[in-house]
Amino acid sequence: MVDRTSGVPAFRQVAADLRAKITSEQYAPGAQLPSERELVEAYGVSRPTIRDAVSVLRAEGIVVAEHGKGVFVRPPAAIHRLARSRLSKEARDRNQGAFLADAATRGFTPSTSVKVRFEEADDRTAEYLGIEPGDEVTVRDRVMRANGLVVQLAVSRLPRELTRDTAIEQVDTGAGGTYARLEDTGRTILRFVEHVGARMPTPEEAAALQLRSGVPVVAVTRVAHGEDRALEVNDMVLPADRYELSYEWLAD
């Protein structure tokens, strides 16, 4: 029950008690919290107080609210992103390119939502792809999930001349993904270049990734290069508290 004489707001007391129960795994990762009605009865407070307490835990990234289902303890989703092997042709041949390779490494269940659109290249995209500003590009906008939790936002842009009449312009590109479809057209992917930085998320990114206040994101821009030109530029946004990025290279 809430201590009315403590001077601590009731919603913060409820949030502290729920936080302690989550930390001790009385409510385990992935578990659903009691319903709002049950929490009202358990703590002897009003529904608005319970909602405020849950809002505190959501802002801290401890719980996730799923519309129509309830509030759940956020499961751990530490993802090891091994840059070298995840982009190999061997991985694509096994249908484990990129994000699927991360899933195989860490044992989570991956899922991806994809939207495809077409737009004119802005100056930045044109510079990366070696095309003219205003040239048409194919955009693949993806939301990636690990065990249902959004863990990555990724937007790929490719010259439309390379994707026209291919599965790259479909939501489902088939086994091996976009890079395999580029190879099907006779293109050879020779190398990747990644530019990695850190920043605070935009409000839209924070909402999509359900980030608690103060958590930065890792921003990765990857450019895929073929024999004579850049084939794709991919802008990725990763929550800094859920990812470990690993790179390896040979000593010259």
Low-pLDDT regions: none
The CATH architecture of the largest domain: 3-Layer(aba) Sandwich
Q: What's the β-strand tally?
A: 10
* The first-level CATH class name of the largest domain: Alpha Beta
Q: Quickly give the structural class.
A: alpha+beta
Total tally of structural domains: 2
The SSE order reads: HHHEEEHHEHEEHHEHEEE
Number of helices: 9
Rounded to the nearest angstrom, the radius of gyration is 22 Å
CATH superfamily of the largest domain: Chorismate lyase-like
Which range does the strand content fall in?
25-35%
Provide mean pLDDT, rounded.
88
Largest sheet: 6 strands, antiparallel
Percent helix, as a range, is 25-40%
Strand order of the largest sheet: 4-5-6-9-8-7
Distance between the termini: 65 Å
Describe this structure in words.
- It is a single chain.
- The protein is an alpha+beta fold and 252 residues long.
- It folds into two domains: 10-73, Winged helix-like DNA-binding domain superfamily/Winged helix DNA-binding domain (Arc Repressor Mutant, subunit A); 79-246, Chorismate lyase-like (Chorismate lyase, 3-Layer(aba) Sandwich).
- Helices cover 29% and strands 31% of the residues.
- It contains nine helices and ten strands.
- It has helices spanning 10-23, 36-43, 47-59, 89-93, 99-106, 123-129, 160-163, 177-184, 203-209, and strands at residues 63-66, 70-73, 79-82, 110-120, 136-146, 149-159, 191-199, 217-225, 230-239, 243-246.
- It has a six-stranded antiparallel β-sheet with strand order 4-5-6-9-8-7. A two-stranded antiparallel sheet has the order 1-2. Strands 3-10 form a two-stranded parallel ribbon.
- Helix 1 packs across helix 3 (47-59).
- 28% of the residues are buried.
- The model has no long low-confidence stretch (mean pLDDT 88).
